[in-house]
Amino acid sequence: MIIREAKTEDAGQIAAFQLEMAMETENLQLDKNTVTLGVEHVFNDRAKGTYYVAEKNGQVIASLLTTYEWSDWRNGTVLWIQSVYVLPAFRGSGVYKKMYQHIQQLVEKDSNLKGIRLYVDQSNTRAQQVYQKLGMTAEHYQLFEWLKN
Fold first, then answer.
1. Is 148 within a domain?
2. What CATH code is carried by the domain that includes residue 89?
3. Helix axes 125-133, 95-109, angle to 10 degrees
4. CA atoms within 13 A on the CB side of 95
5. Which residue range(s) make up the domain with 41?
């Protein structure tokens, strides 16, 4: 398995993963066109973020998106991990762990990057356990949001 930065030709698979994730985690049917355009915008504007994929035997089996948060406290950028999806057949086999370690190495090597954050649904205890095993903590902040319908 390799972890690599996603290419434009991965956009369709990434969009499909997002549609699956929304249905699986929130029983939410997203609009395919909107998601496809949203994914394409990331590839067209690097300031929006960067997708990474896990590939095994030539098949993309997982993806995640990193986005950027400026931290004036740290005088640097914190990467947010978002839109994580691993194909069901590959869950529990360390795919996300390897992807996370790849992102962590990027942060370690770049003095302008100061850390990694992510958010997780409160009911997704399985994912929370994975994040805790990787050394992430949920002690400091609670997420609040307002989203337009």
1. no
2. 3.40.630.30
3. 50
4. 23
5. 2-133
- Residue matched to tokens 């954050």: 117
- Closest by CA to 18, choosing from 45, 41, 47, 1, is 41
In this structure, is residue 31 part of a structural domain? yes
19, two tokens: 């549609």
Q: Which H/E stretch holds residue 32?
A: helix 32-44
Q: How many domains does the chain have?
A: 1
In a domain, 13, yes or no: yes
**What pLDDT digit, counting tens, does each position of 44-81 carry?**
999 999 999 999 999 999 999 999 999 999 999 999 99
Backbone φ and ψ for 148, nearest 5 degrees, come out as -70, 140
pLDDT of residue 4: 98
**2-5/59-71 β-pairing:** unpaired
Per-residue exposure over 21-43, b if at least 16 CB sit within 10 Å of its own CB, e if not: bbeeeeeeebeeeebbebbeebb
Residue 146 lies in a domain: no
